[in-house]
Design goal:
The protein is an alpha/beta fold and 344 residues long. The protein has one domain (6-281, 319-332): Aldolase class I (TIM Barrel, Alpha-Beta Barrel), CATH 3.20.20.70. The protein is 48% helix and 13% strand. The chain is built from 13 helices and ten strands. It has helices at 6-19, 31-43, 54-61, 68-83, 102-118, 137-152, 187-197, 226-239, 257-264, 275-291, 293-296, 306-309, 311-332; strands spanning 23-27, 48-53, 90-95, 127-130, 157-162, 168-169, 172-173, 203-207, 247-249, 268-273. Helix 2 (31-43) links the parallel strand 1 (23-27) and strand 2. The protein starts with 5 loop residues before the first helix and ends in a 12-residue tail after the last helix.
Length: 344
């Protein structure tokens, strides 16, 4: 099954909203991590989302270039080909593009999709994220409207964020000076987001409810999932049930299963998973190096063990471990066995 078409991605979001489940959105930066995500989705008969940050694009383009757009296109095109081997639907997303780099990152990627569409090909991306949460809400909505129009012209869904997610991820960061109240999107702000964007095209919304990027010990992050319900209630109360947001959960590492599952009742259809999969990927590599120290290093004039220092030896284990962690995310988000591939 190739990467989802725009209509198939919309159907994925509709199915998740109606079924009270969500898709794991897996940040990837190379072919090994892309394969881990595809394997996990297929093994669990779950559709899913693979996404790339500007940092991933820079990494993928090579150390001499650090070209975020070029590297992101390479990763996306590789995913289109690799996904053909699997029987589930996968959508592609970009993650956390800040307004200061939108013109040099999002615009060329939207244009790349436009070129593909002109040739009768599928969109390169089904979803782009503009993270303008560092701006005032008025400024945020002004630039979000600009990019939603561009995306809608190409059947791309735009993901927006209002409020501040604490911690840091690829340059998108709250600060120690961020007031606690800014970590929680208000119902009034959620209504304003809807008022500003709903006439222009379909979008998803990362509202904040105390979530923080990175990983923290239990109790360190004070999530308030009821914030999402209050915002949804305010919008639905004004515009009716069709106005329910497709919400996105950022900064979920370390959240309890009860907290994750509660958000599904309030319209979360996508949850970003990055920190946990990074650790899952790295852990078997560290284990391999420690257990095969004499093999991966040529100690005291010895020759080492080619089978031990061949990157495939430890990257296979890393891929498997990452796939298992993604499978756990599918279980947490109740997407197991709910692929709509073949139905749309």
């Amino acid at each position: 099954m190739p990467v989802a078409t725009p209509k198939q991605f919309e159907a994925m979001l509709d199915a998740a909203q109606q079924g009270s489940y969500a898709y794991p959105a897996i940040n990837c930066s190379n072919i090994v991590t892309i394969n881990a995500a595809l394997k996990a989705f297929a093994d669990n008969k779950s559709d899913g989302i693979i996404q790339f940050s500007t940092g991933a694009g820079q990494f993928a383009s090579g150390l001499n270039h650090k070209n975020a757009v070029f590297g992101t296109i390479v990763l996306a095109e590789a995913t289109h080909r690799l996904a053909e081997q699997y029987g589930v639907l996968v959508a592609l997303n970009t993650d956390h593009c800040r307004p200061g780099v939108a013109a040099e990152f999002l615009d060329p990627l939207i244009e790349e999709t436009a070129k593909r569409r002109a040739k009768g090909e599928n969109n390169l991306f089904q979803n782009h994220m503009l993270d303008a949460s560092e701006l005032s809400l008025a400024e945020n909505m002004a630039i979000s409207k600009e990019y939603l129009k561009k995306c809608a012209e190409n059947e791309i869904i735009l993901e927006v964020e209002a409020g501040v997610v604490g911690g840091e991820e690829d340059g998108a960061a709250g600060t120690e000076d961020t007031p606690d109240e800014d970590l929680y999107t208000t119902p009034e702000d959620m209504v304003e987001v809807y008022d500003s964007l709903h006439p222009l095209g379909r979008f998803t919304f990362a509202a904040t409810f105390g979530n923080v990027h990175g990983h923290y010990k239990p109790g360190a992050v004070k999530l308030r999932p009821e914030i999402l319900k209050e915002g949804q209630d305010a919008v639905i109360g004004k515009y009716g049930s069709d106005a329910e947001f497709d919400l996105v959960f950022h900064g979920g590492s370390g959240s309890s299963l009860d907290e994750i599952r509660e958000t599904l009742n309030y319209g979360v259809v996508k949850m970003n998973v990055d920190t946990d999969t990074q650790y899952a990927f790295s852990r078997p590599i560290a284990d391999h190096m420690l257990k095969n120290y004499d093999g991966v290093l040529k100690i005291d004039g010895e020759v080492g063990n080619k089978k031990a220092y061949d990157p495939r030896a430890y990257l296979k284990a890393a891929e498997e471990a990452m796939a298992l962690r993604i499978a756990e995310a599918c279980e947490d988000l109740l997407s197991v066995g709910k692929s709509i591939a073949g139905d749309v």
